[in-house]
Design a protein that fits this description.
single chain, alpha+beta, Thrombin, subunit H, six-stranded antiparallel beta barrel, 23% helix, disordered N terminus
């Protein structure tokens, strides 16, 4: 994972060395719209494959209001695939969150393990609130 620096000493050194401007450093540190937190949540995603809906069990390893990172086994999910998922967050087992999203990143991690970034595109307001509260509780 890339490091993002907001340290003032680093910014000043980068400007002095002409390697990076302050604006470039700040822009790099603000690439995400929403804060992500680690989570362990089992989910099942559904997507269309050759005109059939296929369901695959997977695991969410981090989440934000805007998306999630999935760990899939045996094969990745192609970029631009639309997926629908339902899952429960830890300590909120009575709430089933349902989302639809677009795969924005898919990459190999190690033998039979793939990392997939999903941007949420369709969610109920109450599910956004549940995720927001979960993220907030994990960052305090």
């Amino acid at each position: 994972m890339a490091k993002y620096y907001t340290n003032v000493a680093f910014i000043n050194k980068a400007k002095k060395d002409k390697k990076m401007t302050k604006r470039e450093v700040i822009n790099r540190s603000n690439r995400r719209k929403h804060v992500r937190v680690d989570v362990y949540a089992v989910t099942r995603y559904f997507c269309a494959v050759r005109d059939k809906e296929v369901g695959v069990q997977t695991r969410i390893s981090d989440i934000s209001e805007g998306g999630a990172k999935l760990l899939t086994f045996e094969e990745g999910i192609p970029v631009d695939t639309i997926v629908s998922m339902s899952f429960r967050l830890p300590h909120q087992e009575n709430v089933v969150i349902k989302v639809e999203g677009m795969v924005r990143y898919s990459g190999f991690v190690e033998q039979d393990l793939f990392r997939t970034g999903v941007e949420f595109t369709k969610m109920r307001k109450k599910d956004i609130e549940v995720i927001r509260e979960y993220v907030y509780s994990r960052t305090r």
